[in-house]
Each structure stands twice: as structure tokens, then as C-alpha cells.
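Late entry, evening session. Most of the bench is empty. Finally got around to the prediction I had been postponing all week. Sequence below, unchanged from the version circulated by S.P.
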Amino acid sequence: MNKTENYNQQMYAQQAFQQSLALIAEAVQGEKEDQVFYDYLISLAPTQEQIEIITSIRNDEVKHNQWFKQMYKAVTGNEVVITTEEQFVPPADYISGIKKAFFGELKAMEKYRVIREGLPYREYRDIVFEILTDEMKHAQLYNYILTENFAMNAPEKTATENTASTTTSNAPEPVAFPDQWIQYTEYLVNEGLNDVERGINTKHILQEFILMGVLVGKGYTPEQAYETVENWELSGESQILQQSKNSQ
């Protein structure tokens, strides 16, 4: 490697590192607004299960903010500067709030992936990888909440339809605790993280695993959901999945 190539690589690494620091500082902004937002969702959640899911997500986000602040101070020697907090604007309703939270998780995953790529220290990359794992679980849980609420508001099935939709999977009961659903869908989380490690673009990963979450909500096992969505992509039945996999 000549001096010019080495210099260019060092410059690129430094720029990526500075971008990671800027994104870490950005990630912890609006912390108070986020707390009010989660409290708002919890106050409107229609079931104890959904209250516990959102509470667990809120606690994870508090932990993530603490980790990001600690990383930032460790590598810069300075505290993250928190700018003026934004005013909380309540969503139109509970479902609108859950959708906002869901898409917020997807946006955060894009940001955290860039943060991880720019960090020069393995220790911190591992921490961000754990945060990414949590964010993927959160997206699945929000998707589950949306599916549950749509099901609650859907017309009741006939006896024949109920019989036809009965499965022999080991899926948790509808009143299961969040951790039971997380354990049940661990297979999908691991496959998603493998895709992240392989460098598959985030948009494609999210499209696939959101679809898989919908199928799990409809009674598929995680393995069946994964195989079904993969077949949609490979067969060309879903052109959008094929296109997004090849895009950057």
C-alpha cells in the first residue's frame, strides 16, 4: 500500500468516526420528549400486555441513551451537549402513536448501523450491535401490537373460519408476556442480524422481517414465515423485495 492510499484510508476512517460521534449526539437528543411519548402510549394501551411491551421498550431506550452518552464521553472527554428539547405533540390516537414509534425504530436502525460502521473500537461496535438487536426486537413488538389491534377491531370470524385458522404451532397465547413473544421470534431476530452482518441493505432487511412479523401474527411459525418471504423474493412473486435487495 502506497502512502497516498494509506492517507486516503486514514482520512476516510477519521471522517466515518466523526460522523459516528455526530450521530451519537443526535441519537440522544429529545430524551425528555421521548419519555413523555412513551408515557402517552402506555396511558392509552388497551391491554396489560401492551402496557408491559411498551414499558419494556421504554426501559431499553433509556438504557441505550445512557450507553451512547457513556461512549461519547469516553472517546471525546466531553458530555453530549443537549440542545433545546422539542415540544411534545400527541399523535392523533393510540394506533397513530404506535405507527410513529414503529417507523421511528426503523429510522433509528439506519442511524445506528452507520454509527457502528464508523467506530474504531470493537468494544463500542459490540455495544451498538446489541442496541441494533434491541431495535429489531422493538420493531417486531410494535408490529405485533399493530396486528393485535387490527385483529381486535376486525369482524368476528365464523366457527368455520376459526377452525380453519387453528394451528399446531408453539406460538404463545394472545395474553403472553412480551418476553415470551421475543423468545418465540428469536429465530427471526438472529436471521435478521445475520443479514446485517452480510451487509444486506437495511431497507430490504426491514421489508422482509416486517412481512415475516405479519405472517407470524397470522399464525405462521417463525420458520414458516421466513421461508415464505424468502420464496416470494426468489420466485419473483415480490418484485419489490428483489429490487430493494439489489439497491444500495
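Two things to note before I forget:
The CA atoms of residues 20 and 82 lie 17 Å apart.
Residues 157-168 have pLDDT under 50 and may be disordered.
Will write this up properly tomorrow.
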